[in-house]
Amino acid sequence: MTVKTTLSFTNRHAEFLKAKVEEGVYASTSAAVAAAVEEMIRDEIEREAALNAMAEEIRARMATPREDYVDVDQAFAKARARVRSAGRG
């Protein structure tokens, strides 16, 4: 189904759309706007998936027992030693 609507653009946006249609990138201004909206939809889906993955990872980490935590001094000991030795070099 197609819905007819009226849109307003800044001069900059209108000129850009017109140029893309003239270059043959899009068949019409409507096609260019539709492509932009599709891109926004894809971006929103990807954003939602990333946020859900982060939330799942946070939940999993919160469920990690304290005894499974890595000691911060042990975790960074080699890196700190390398930084110290590089500073003396």
- Unreliable residue runs: none
- Report the portion of residues in β strands: under 5%
Overall domain count: 1
- The outline comes out as elongated
Question: Total strand count, please?
Answer: 0
Mean pLDDT: 94
**Structural class label:** mainly alpha
Oligomer: single chain
Description:
- This protein is mostly helical.
- The chain contains 3 helices and no strands.
- The chain has one domain (11-88).
What attributes characterize this protein structure?
single chain, 89 residues, mainly alpha
Summarize the SSE layout with pairings.
Layout: H1 11-22, H2 29-62, H3 72-88
What's the short story on this structure?
71% of the residues lie in helices and 0% in strands. It is an all-alpha fold and 89 residues long.
